[in-house]
Amino acid sequence: MNSKSMVKDLFVRDFDEKLHAKATQIAINDGITLASLVADAVDIWIKNHEKNRHRHNLILYDNEASLSRLLDEIDKLASGNWFKSSCGSTKHYGMQYLNKKRWFDATAGNYDKLLENPQETGSKVLEIIGNKVGNTFPLTVAFLVEDLAREESVKKAVRFCEWYERKSLPGITYCIANTRNVISGSFDDLFDLFNVHNAVFLTKGNKLYKLRLDEERFYSLLI
Ligand SMILES: [Zn+2]
Fold first, then answer.
1. How far from 59 is each of 31, 71, 199, CA to CA, in Å?
2. Any idea of the CA torsion for 163, 164, 170, 171, to the nearest 10 degrees?
């Protein structure tokens, strides 16, 4: 496909007359077309939007086969301008899998400290990622929730994710955990863990499901 066939026309309805005249004059003075000026503005807007986008999602998996499939898909989809990093124990199957795909291990040498003191060491890990990211967009896969839930408690995992969510950093972060470990906590802790993330997904076999938590009135049970 040549690039010409990919060009789309953009029709701007109700474009302010004065703004149009001013933009046209600037475009003429700069020896460019008004269309290229609009394309530039849209490009800057998209870049700013991407830079500020924050997503912190939880994905629960059932076994290593589902996890491999999930990581393969994430890796394949994020093939462009992404800085791909992982957080977890070097012994974790998922970390070893991403390591083979050359993801950057942001917790290398610090992971035990991170489990002991998630917030303090977490700040250092975020700094390491921040120093590496450059002009790319950060994509982080973290297995911390799983380890905190198994070795400490689901409550401690919730506290860490609350702390991380308050930072609202740009980038996409996936907390990926084995379902077995997070259902070991109380119902309240599990509910809090779901609530502290922007979205919750379950992966089983080759499929991905989005879990919805919508508060409903009881009468909706009978309609
Ligand atoms: Zn999280």
1. 51, 11, 9
2. -170
CB 132 within 8 Å of CB 86: no
Q: How many helices (H) and strands (E) does the chain have?
A: 10, 7
Residues with Cβ–ion distance below 5 A, ligand 1: 161, 175
Instruction: Judge whether 83 and 137 are in contact, CB under 8 Å.
Output: yes
Q: pTM higher than 0.85 for the full model? A: no
Domain ranges for the chain, please list them: 15-49, 54-211
Query: What's the distance, CA 198 to chain centroid?
Result: 10
State in Å: Cα 50 to ligand 1 middle: 20
* Structure token pair of residue 2: 């040549």
Q: What does the pLDDT look like over 170-216, one tens digit per residue?
A: 899 999 999 999 998 799 999 999 999 999 999 998 999 999 888 89
The domain made up of 54-211 has a fold known as: Rossmann fold (3.40.50)
Rounded to the nearest angstrom, the distance between the alpha carbon of 197 and the centre of ligand 1 is: 6
The identity of residue 69, as a single letter, is: R
